[in-house]
User: What shape does this take?
Amino acid sequence: MIRINESSPVPIYQQIIEGMQREILSGVFAADDRLPSIRDLAISLKVNPNTIARAYQEMANAGTIYFKRGQGAYVTPKSVDDLLEQARAEMAKHIIEIIAIARSMNLDRQQVRRIFDAVLDQQEVK
Assistant: This one.
């Protein structure tokens, strides 16, 4: 499920893109699956339909989805390797942000690892 954080500095359309990509990567939507209509997604997320349209257009420009005239948006077929690479890239982006925060706090590698391991344990990630 896509969650919008209105207090985030990340634009809402970008949060929607990231949420849809996570859903595609996690298998909620498979290759050639139809995505929710712009109107339906706008209602469920309580955002302007133009915001959803912008997110969908950005995903289409990136090759993540495609449109069928009069039928909606669909997930572009991609290989598992492509999807995994996309997931790794998204994770790396977030890890880089965390490292920047750690540096600003003068945390060393060992301290960051301890924090990371503690969070993994809390989230029960194997």
